[in-house]
Amino acid sequence: SSQHRLSARLPAPAKNPRALMSRNFLCLAVPMLLSGLIEHFIPPSFFRDLSLDPTEEDWIGGDEGFRWLQGGGWAWLNVKRVLLSFVIVASGFLTAFNIRLSYRAGELWRLVMLLALLSAALLGTTATIHERYELQLRQYMLWAAFIPFTTHDNHISAACQGVLLGLSIRGLVVYGAQPLWTIVEPAQF
Hints:
single chain, mainly alpha, two-stranded antiparallel ribbon, globular
């Protein structure tokens, strides 16, 4: 029956208050709050000129073998670059983990088709009205597009949902719920 298939996809209810607190509070609410308030924990100067690539100041010798600057070895590897590398690797791991769970649950095809259908509708509408309007994808929409891939009944997926939800809400709060399409101003000659 379709009701049984639907209930099989829904998360199981918590068996006790401890399980409810660990999944709903620690794994969903705390990551949501932390990701939504990220700018209050990290000063804006932290992200200024942040890059994984060593700059010209990090190298001497140019094409002559890339001799490292002061201290030899990994002098360019500072805290910002290590943190950014960790975030990129952790995000990739968590994305792969949730996609693997979706595949094992038989849901990956449905989720990819849903995303493709929504993208086709968005692009079709944009192609139809492109003379007067242009598409402006918003940050909160991009984060929210990945939330369906995290609908699994485990703590890691709940934490991923919390982070994505927090980033989406943060984008809405900071930039507002702006329209998808903005009017293109005609050229003034």
